[in-house]
Specification:
The protein is of the alpha+beta class and about 200 residues long. The protein is built from five helices and 13 strands. The strands form four sheets. Strands 3-6-8-9-10-11 form a six-stranded mixed β-sheet. Strands 5-4-7 form a three-stranded mixed β-sheet, with helices on one face.
Length: about 200
């Protein structure tokens, strides 16, 4: 029985390479759970989504798509891998990517150079990554805009912190905190109702 247990575990959880996994491994290892990410060469598995997380992502995707001007050639995508470097393949909850990067229906990743905005909606299991490792890596990779979204208030509505990449420090600088309405001019003019009522209407 012990031998069977060892075989089952070793086949389900492969032993990481000495130097950690690479982005190529992320797309070739068999049977990885959906939405697995690669952070510093380690595989990160996500917990099941909570209602706040799912509906907030829907709210932002819909809002970004409806406000993006036609002349701005971008696409809004949810939970797609963005390759930051050889050892980091993160999956923002929402990404705004250049239209030319959306080349074919079976594309399964984007380059950081094609991403204008990365959005993370914080969950209890992702809080440390969303506040620390991921924005630092997005900034290092040159993604110009980053939004951090958290639940706040007794009515549990989203608050969106908007950051812009400082080309001198190569770090994000906070440019605004939005509670009931997300209104900003970057990466294009955005005006989205993010109130508790808007969230509840989904």
């Amino acid at each position: 029985m012990g031998g069977t247990m060892t075989t089952t575990l070793s086949s389900r959880w492969p032993v990481p390479p000495l130097d950690g996994y690479t982005v190529d491994d992320l797309f070739t290892l068999p049977d990885l759970p959906p939405h697995t990410q690669l952070i510093d060469g380690s595989l990160v598995f996500v917990s099941p989504q909570r209602l706040f997380h799912s509906t907030t992502v829907d709210l932002l995707v819909t809002g970004l798509r409806s406000t993006a001007p036609a002349e701005v050639k971008v696409k809004v995508r949810r939970q797609m891998t963005v390759v930051l470097d050889r050892r980091n393949g993160a999956e923002p909850d929402v990404s705004v990517v250049r239209t030319e990067a959306v080349t074919e229906p079976d594309v399964n990743r984007y380059r950081a150079a094609d991403v204008l905005l990365a959005v993370e909606v914080v969950s209890p299991d992702s809080e440390a990554r969303d506040h620390g490792a991921k924005p630092r890596k997005y900034a290092t990779a040159g993604i110009p805009h980053f939004w951090l979204v958290e639940m706040t208030g007794t009515d549990q509505h989203p608050v969106v912190r908007v950051y812009e990449l400082d080309p001198v420090t190569k770090a994000y600088a906070l440019t605004g905190i939005h509670h009931d309405r997300l209104k900003t001019g970057v990466p294009f003019p955005v005006d989205v109702d993010i109130s508790a009522e808007a969230l509840a209407a989904l």
